[in-house]
TrEMBL record, chains A, B:
Pathway(s) where this gene product acts: Amino-acid biosynthesis; L-histidine biosynthesis; L-histidine from 5-phospho-alpha-D-ribose 1-diphosphate: step 9/9
Reaction(s) catalysed by this chain's protein: L-histidinol + 2 NAD(+) + H2O = L-histidine + 2 NADH + 3 H(+)
Catalytic machinery residues: E326 (proton acceptor), H327 (proton acceptor)
UniProt keyword list: Amino-acid biosynthesis, Histidine biosynthesis, Metal-binding, NAD, Oxidoreductase, Zinc
Cofactor(s) listed: Zn(2+)
Binding site for substrate: S236, Q258, H261, H327, D360, E414, H419
Similarity remark: Belongs to the histidinol dehydrogenase family.
Binding site for Zn(2+): Q258, H261, D360, H419
Cofactor binding remark: Binds 1 zinc ion per subunit.
InterPro entries tied to this protein: Ald_DH/histidinol_DH (IPR016161), Histidinol_DH_CS (IPR001692), Histidinol_DH_monofunct (IPR022695), Hstdl_DH (IPR012131)
Species whose genome carries this gene: Novosphingobium panipatense
EC number: 1.1.1.23
Role, per record: Catalyzes the sequential NAD-dependent oxidations of L-histidinol to L-histidinaldehyde and then to L-histidine.
Name of the protein described by the UniProt record: Histidinol dehydrogenase
């Protein structure tokens, strides 16, 4: 864990290093991934069979290519009741928050008589990547699938690796609850290629979302333009802004909730009280000793954890804007005044009773958020990622007479006479 | 020009070939571009100097790195008056259309007492690529710069190659009108790298938009995630749906307005009258003989032009959806009924008096639109490309008691005990 103080000499440089430190995998998988994409594009299902045997250790023709809707329903029906209601509450709240995001169409006629507007449509098909192993989270499935369904996507396809053929019943239950249409037992860069290009068995989709390892992320990046994708995701991060009026146990718990995700995750505390910072650091150590995920959390906290002492929390917003963190918790009595000055953040958690984890599951807003300072220019997943806008224009003779000549002048100035002519042949003068 | 009829045997296959035909450059510039990006990242301005000398044939230290605001203003002031008013009309109409796109923030408290919302902010800085040479269009500058300014972007940077040191006065005039803050005399993949990474002279930006050649497009694709980008753009295209009540001269002009852009552009006509189709094809040939841009237009029309005869225009929407064209013109008496069935299109031009070119300049909606069937999943440029959304969540004790236990259950089920603990330490029971 790195301890900084905004009063120390060289703070600006040390903080800049925290900001610019890239925690993302330095492994260059671009060439490997390009080869896999090409192979799937050429050989289709045969390539998927080979990669699945190699990476997941099972034979798709034997284990089955798809998990049936009946199996997903069975997984849901046999969930322990309190878990089932928790999943239902999460789904219902996510649905409500995202339904209110649905954009409105526009259609109006302006003073020149030009009718203008825009119509939003859902994409025809969306593919959701659901990781296997450590990061096989039903909450992640809900956060990706529900916005797509709310957007009105008719076909929703999940791809997920099932190492050794084993499926995760919680993920299947979530797929049932979210109304996923197809679940394919394939994962990795080859699964993303199958979604984008299509294979004999898997029809192509228009948008691919969902988290994955470095290969999956690189596959999405390379296929951007063939399909739409959500933002490339990196390691998760939290910035907690807290004063000394907080219980150190709670703030330590918030920092550890991020640290347990992955060794590359990052938890940062900004506080205006050095003694409180010491307390939090101590509690983190104590808690780590009993935490079931202590190995991951300790790796993350020791390598990437940061505590920054500041004179006053008034300094926090500019530091937060530089970090542009995925999650920002503001545990003060008046979180609003600090939030108003934070321009770059994925999601903000206000006050002492809003631990970030509540947003991971049941609050309603999406937990797929920009990481690695990408909150400077990108947003969390929303219904808009599964929709697109078609603008429209309608002129009558009078409207064309009013604005057409200006277009003719510009087209001629740009050296595009056929553009000019398509307008001038319709003008009366 | 390819002539198809929906009645002919094998039409489905022939049409599929039109749909899947990739008109984009098959040249693989990925490795070249990767090397350039790396070089600019390492050597900064020195790399820009070298590449500019090599590709644009001038020495930046001699010609000057920037075009001054005074030079842009001078270019605007010395514009021929009718051209200046045309540019002003365009800017004003583009501004009005995009201002109405500004998203609204949300802030509400739901039945469980959970406060939820979302705040939109502009990015800190945007970079606009403006091509030199054939495609140096002032209209393109307005279409990129005005949405950024309307979004509230404080710093707007243009990069543009100036071969031999020569600037395009129309582009400078448009930069002045749109309120661009900096104009740098660099173009190519290296200019995009400079925008994304920053150099000694050029501060980095958060979003890069604007058209360019294959190198520029590949640079944007590779830098996606380092910065936000608009959709990767390919060759332009138009689909004209027209009945026999149209003047063939007008429809031919519309087809040619697209064809004159580039040899890779594509113009497609769908009509329910074979004799009308013949007339249009004849007029295209006649017009080509006098068109100043005939060389480009002829290349485009002969290689990529398509006329499809259908029995009834009722067949047109499903063909249009498969093509997912950048521009769709519906030249009929009741364009509305066809538009309602078109789900995938960049922009639709309704009726007989709305040539596509009017949308290129003065209608108001953006002319930066998805090409190459990307209208299936992406939208034209808008203020949203220069903004991002931060969600927020606020719970009090009662709200956390209401929904927190469900989050605890899910966190435990996902094997994330620190997530669970960050909530349970705040619960009273």
């Amino acid at each position: 864990m790195l301890r900084l103080s905004s009063r120390q000499p060289g703070f600006a440089e040390a903080f800049d290093r925290v900001v610019s430190d890239r925690r993302e995998s330095a492994v260059d998988v671009a060439a490997d991934v390009a080869a896999i994409l090409k192979d799937v594009r050429q050989r289709g299902d045969a390539a998927l069979t080979d990669y699945t045997r190699r990476f997941d250790g099972h034979d798709l023709d034997r284990t089955g290519w798809q998990v049936s809707a009946a199996d997903c329903k069975a997984a849901f029906d046999t969930l322990e009741p309190s878990l089932r209601s928790a999943l239902e509450l999460a789904a219902e709240r996510i649905r409500a928050y995202h339904a209110a995001q649905l954009p409105e169409n526009r259609d109006y006629t302006d003073a020149q008589g030009v009718r203008l507007g825009a119509i939003w449509n859902a994409v025809d098909a969306a593919g959701l990547y659901v990781p296997g192993g450590r990061a096989a989270y039903p909450s992640s499935l809900l956060m990706n699938a529900i916005p797509a369904k709310v957007a009105g996507v008719p076909r929703l396809v999940v791809v997920t690796p099932t190492p050794g053929g084993e499926v995760n019943p919680l993920v299947l239950a979530a797929a049932h609850l979210a109304g996923v249409d197809e679940v394919w037992r394939v994962g990795g860069a080859h699964a993303v290629a199958a979604l984008a290009y299509g294979t004999e068995r898997i029809a192509p989709v228009d948008v691919v979302t969902g988290p994955g390892n470095a290969w999956v992320a690189e596959a999405k990046r390379q296929l951007y333009g063939v399909v739409g994708i959500d933002m490339v995701a990196g390691p998760s991060e939290i910035l907690v802004i807290a004063d000394a009026a907080n219980d150190p146990v709670r703030i330590a718990a918030d920092l550890l909730s991020q640290a347990e995700h992955d060794p590359t995750s990052q938890s940062i505390l900004i506080t205006d009280d050095a003694a409180f910072a010491d307390d939090v650091a101590r509690v983190v150590e104590t808690e780590l000793s009993t935490l079931a995920t202590q190995r991951t959390a300790r790796d993350s906290w020791s390598v990437n954890g940061v505590i920054i002492d500041v004179d006053t929390l008034d300094e926090a917003p500019s530091l937060a804007n530089a970090l542009a963190a995925e999650h920002v918790e503001i545990a003060t009595d008046d979180p609003e005044s600090l939030m108003r000055r934070i321009r770059h953040a994925g999601s903000i958690f206000l006050g002492r009773m809003t631990p970030e984890a509540v947003g991971d599951y049941v609050a309603g807003p999406n937990h797929v958020l920009p990481t690695g300072r990408r909150a400077r220019f990108s947003s969390g997943l929303s219904v808009l990622d599964f929709m697109k806008r078609t603008s429209f224009i309608q002129l009558d003779q009078a409207a064309l007479e009013a604005i057409g000549p200006a277009a003719v002048a510009l087209a001629n100035a740009e050296g595009l006479p056929a553009h000019a002519r398509s307008i001038s042949v319709r003008l009366s003068r």
